[in-house]
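--- STAGE predict ---
source: upstream dedup step, 1 unique chain passed
mode: sequence only
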Amino acid sequence: MSTNTLPNNPSLAEQQVLKAFDRWCQDSRVTPTSISSQWKHDSEDFMTVEYRVEASGNLPAVARFLHDIEKDPMALKLQNVELSSHDNNGQQLTLGLQISGLVLTPREQKR
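--- STAGE serialize ---
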């Protein structure tokens, strides 16, 4: 996992993750409705960035989107997944995700 962590530059890390979200949404045909991030300085050795993602689509699209996130080598972890239906047949779903990304911050880089 340490070889696939996010860059130790918040702007570059967010750019990398947002590009991946765009790619996953396009490939799966999920429609994103919101993506927000929050940085956490967990220790001297690492930080995490947490993303809250809201998206909608049908069941095959949502399944593909989740699969694409899980198979990507980027150091991301699905924390929570929430699904809700917007019709009586369950054809239109809303997906809520909480995802965290790992950023290593080696001591020699900090000053």
